[in-house]
Structure formats: C-alpha cells, structure tokens
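Can you give me the bound-state structure? Components:
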Amino acid sequence: MPLEFKILKTDSKTSARIGKVVTEHGEFSTPVFMPVATKGAVKTLEPVELKEISTEIILSNTYHMFLRPGIEIIERFGGLHNFMRWDGPILTDSGGYQIFSQKDLCKISDKGVKFKSYIDGTEYFLTPENIIQIQETYGSDIIMPLDFPASYPSTSTQTEESTKITLDWLKRSINCHPLKGALFAITQGGFETTAREHFIYELNNLDLSKIYGFAIGGMSLNEPKEITWKIVETTCNLITKDKPRYLMGVGTPQDIVKAVSLGIDMFDCILPTRLGRNSWAFTNQGVVKLKNSVYKNDDSPVDPECGCSVCKTYSRAYIRHLFNIEEILPLKLLSYHNIYFYHNLIKRIRESISRGTFETDFLKKQIEFDVKLT
Amino acid sequence: MPLEFKILKTDSKTSARIGKVVTEHGEFSTPVFMPVATKGAVKTLEPVELKEISTEIILSNTYHMFLRPGIEIIERFGGLHNFMRWDGPILTDSGGYQIFSQKDLCKISDKGVKFKSYIDGTEYFLTPENIIQIQETYGSDIIMPLDFPASYPSTSTQTEESTKITLDWLKRSINCHPLKGALFAITQGGFETTAREHFIYELNNLDLSKIYGFAIGGMSLNEPKEITWKIVETTCNLITKDKPRYLMGVGTPQDIVKAVSLGIDMFDCILPTRLGRNSWAFTNQGVVKLKNSVYKNDDSPVDPECGCSVCKTYSRAYIRHLFNIEEILPLKLLSYHNIYFYHNLIKRIRESISRGTFETDFLKKQIEFDVKLT
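Here's the bound-state model for the whole set.
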C-alpha cells in the first residue's frame, strides 16, 4: 500500500473531517496545506526552513520538471526527494493544466498530447502512461494522472470533451497499476453540476482499489465562487468518504475554511509565496501590503499574533525598507511567514474539528481577506 | 574606550599579525572579513544565517542608509543594530566614495558636499561633522570619516585635492570627539607613494589618541596591483603598529592573503555576495560558475572540501538547475557558501599565523582565482 488514510474524526455539524495520511516518506495530518515547489523549489525557501514552519508535504509539477532539469537528471539522483533534498512526502501534479493552458503550443490526439516547450520550442509527445511513468521515476508519493480541464466559461461541447478525455486517460492511468506511488483520480466536468455528476458516476464504476484519493480539478479558473462550492459539495457527496479529497489550486484562507467544511482534506496554492514576494503578508487582522509607506515607522511584527521566527525577529518597518530598496531577503521573509500562516490556520482548523467547535470557531466568523494586487 | 585592539602574535617572516578587537557589541578576531550590508542587509541573508557561518562584524553604508530608510527611522529604532536585528559589531563606511562616484550629482565646497539623491533628486548638504553625527545616531561601533578619494588615473592636482580635502575633513572629524563609536582615519593620496607618505606624515601629527584604527581608501579602482601593494606596504610601514588597519573594498582571496602579509587586519568586499548571485562559487579548487551546463549532472557539493550547510546539503546539479529556472533560492545558497568560504580562508590564515606557517601555507602557494564575469 503506497498510501494509507485514516479518518480520525468527522465533524457533526459540517462535512469537515480530520485524518492522517501515511506514505513511504512519512505521514501528514489532514486537512493539510501543501506549499508549491512547481519547478523543484518552494520559491525562496530551503527544505530545512519548510521543516521549521511545519511543512509536511510539498507539491511539484511533473511537466515543469520534465522540461527542466529533465527526467535523466532526476533519475540520476534517484528521484526528486534526493535531488531537492526534501525527505518528506511529495505530490506531483501531472501538468495537464499547465500544458493545456498554452493552447497554441499543444495538440491533443487519441493517444496523448503533442506540445512544444515554451522554453526552446522542442516538440514532445506525452501519453497518460508516460506521465505516470515519469512520476514513478521521480519517486512521487502521490501521483496525479494527465487530465484535460475545461476553461471558464466553457461550452457544453468543451465540457463533454474535457470529461471524455480525462475519463479515458484516467482509465489508462489506472491500467499502469501496480505503482510505487499512490495514484489519485482528478475529477473534471467543467462548471455544470450534471457534468460533474456524470464524471463521478463513471469514476465510481472504475476499480477504486487502485485509486488512493480524489482531486477536484478545473476549479479556481475565475468562475464565481457559488459554482466552485456547488461543485465541491456535489463531488464530496458522491465520492467515497474513506479516501482523501484534494481541491487543486485553492485558495485563500476563507476558501480553505469553506472547502474543509464541505469535506476537503488537501490544498495547494501559490498565494502565500506569490503574495509574499509582492510584499503582501497574511495576518490574523487581515492582509497587509508591507511596501506601503504607512509601515515605514511601524515597529510591530508582521503579525503581532504570529509565532514564526520572522515575526519574532523583524519589524514591519525593516521589511518595508527591504522591499523599498529592492532587496532579495524580504521575498523570503514573507514567503516564510505566509506559509507559516497557512499551516497555522490549518492546524487551528484541525484542532477545532477535534474539539467539535469548527463551525463556531471558523464558519460563523468572517475571516478578513482583502487582497487588491497592485 | 569604544574599541580596544590587542595584537596576539606578529609573524616573523612577513608583516602579518593576528589580534582581537573588542567593541561594545562584542569582539572579533583579526584578520577579519566583514560581509557588506550596504543598505541594511547582507544581500539574501538573515543575521541568524550570518551567525551560522561565523560572521563577527558587518559593514553598512552611512550615505545609503541616510537616503533610505533615513535617519529618523533608524533613530526611532534606537540604531542600526536593532533596526537590522544584528547584535554584533557594525562598521559604517561614510559613503564618501559613493557620493563622489556620482560626479554629476555632487559639488564640493569648503564646508562639505552638496549632492542630489540618485533616487528622487532631492538635494542634500552634508558636512564631515554631519557624517559623524549620523553614524553616532546609527550606533555604529566603528565610524568612518567623510573622505574624498582620487579616481584612477589621477592628475597630480587631483591627488593633491584629494589629500588636502580628506585631511581637512579628518581633522574636523577628530574634533567631534568624544564619540560613542570608534573613529578610524581613512588614508588617501591617490596612486603616488609620495602623496600617500605625505598624507600619513600629516596624519601622524594629529591627536592619534582619538583615532582607533587606520583605513586605506581609494584602492581597488582598477589601478595595477603593483601600485596597490606598494601603497599598502608604504602605509603599513608608516602608521603605528598598535591599531587595526583596514584595506577598504579589497578583494579576492589572493588579495586578502597578500594584504595580510603586508600587515592588514580588516577587509570588506562585495565579491562573495555579488559573484554568488551570478552563480559563481569560490572553492578550494578554484572558482566555478554553476550556471554552466557542465554541472548539470554533477552530484558533488559546490566545494567537496567545504563544511558549510549548503555544501553538506545540495549538489552542484541542483543549484545549477535552480539558476537555470531563475529561482531566487540559489542566490542565497551561493552568497551563504561564498561568505563562509571567505571566513574560512581568513580563519585558516589566522591559524597559520598562530602556528608560524603563514608564509609556507599561503604566500608560497598559488591560490586559484580566475573569475571572468560573463
């Protein structure tokens, strides 16, 4: 068994649950937030720093690491863990979303996808089977199949195509069994509940013993939030309860609270690092943009309620100064703090589910989040 | 006494010596290498990381910190140490070199220098007395007076002007006594030994009890190395032995070895951080440029003989990959390693002077250093 999942408690008032996932590279508690190391590094941070802030599992991208540094190099190092020097669990996204978001560079056929490298134009052809094999070579603990998301908004033809191709490729991925890593299924079906229901109906007819978790793909593509939550709710209600559910690419702190309440266990998002690099910091009092001159004399920590080493060491004024002089250091300082913030939020969510107070502690409170990227 | 200096041993075959400097913010051994935090941060590195690699004293720049964040903010924080969260000794350069290198933006008068901010054009007027007061406000452990270096090559008129103005300003700086920080004298005099001798003759007639160390300024301005060493030798022979000597802005590992042999105790240089950010790594086998594709499969550490945590953790291939994808992390990794390399070199120099083997260990060996910045 490449992955074991145990539900420790289910919330009585919502669909939230807490659990534990065990992989060959260690275990993690759910709900979990996975920092994003798309190209083999969580931007600005070392593995030892991720450990300091309680990161338990990171996410990398099969397609990006396929282009650079290439499979041969990762294979030579015995896999991604050793190459990156991260010894905890790694989930690798297939890169379906990334490949197909460059429409002009790719072409789908029955067999797979032909695409040109955005770096040097080299042409590649990859099949669902290749994508799985590559992740096996990487030594990924959690393997994502090649999927074909619909873009938002989507015509019914596009939705059908996304559903059909993703389902077909999922079947072929399952046929790669047995695998060292744990294969998840990515559910697609555009933005219509009926198409999503159809997808899961078909999915539930497959050999689920070969699927270790379910991901909800194709969300967070600028669709209205009501659509997102309707689809998450529908999906969680229709898939088996005993496997982890992963909402791909989501989201803000509020999104995470909402999604946990609907039964989601796993999250990844570039927000904490990307916003951090743009001088935005998450705090328990809302989001602040530290580059603003209003902070130039502010001797308080980034977040007075935060226990991370950045908040225990530096002032807002100093970090503001570092951004102002275009120093590199503050990009790291806020990436560190923001990921800590996310981990801490998830930890408090887990604790409240454990206590049975999740609904009152989180759902009934407004969490401040007003990011206007400028 | 804001600064005490004790020579622990003088080399019998060269002018090298080892010593200890005590300041209000702690002590450091000499020879010493001071990482450069021009604008209030050693680029990419946190104070805690500098401590890890045995940094004992850092250098900052009065002029740059005067422009940003400005004195008021640093004063509000009770000085630079608390603002930056570095609790060890700080030497602040005056910024004379930086002000006068922007010739179009500054104008010298008897009283001081009028200059325009390179950031927003704001006009400022600073005197030698202001520069001292600002460093007192910063809480600098070692204070550098405003100086006026000659550029290379220099006419005899320019050399005379540099000598005259720097001497005049030095006298006015001495008159600011008593100071909380330890005032150093910066020796100038262009690139002619006679002008340098004249400067030191005048200097030696001043009240040396108010001067805690001597800096050699105006070097490393593209003059031939023979000129540099001739001036360093002349200067060291003419100034009193019982105070630390600081060769400003120098240099490569070979430069440091040579300068130590001539009696220099203190160094600062941007090379380890600037080269690091450009993927160059110092190693005991010479300098390597890790971005080069020759390292793409190299599973050895940056420097197999190095004990720093970067070398104990990562491969050349991984760091090369990070540079290749334009990640931010490797800028820090190589800055960290390169400063460690410099500290380690200086430590080995100190040990060899202590053993009495400095000449055989270092001077008679060729140290590899072939950086062609590309």
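A couple of observations. The first helix of chain A runs from residue 47 to 52. Chain A has a mean pLDDT of 95.
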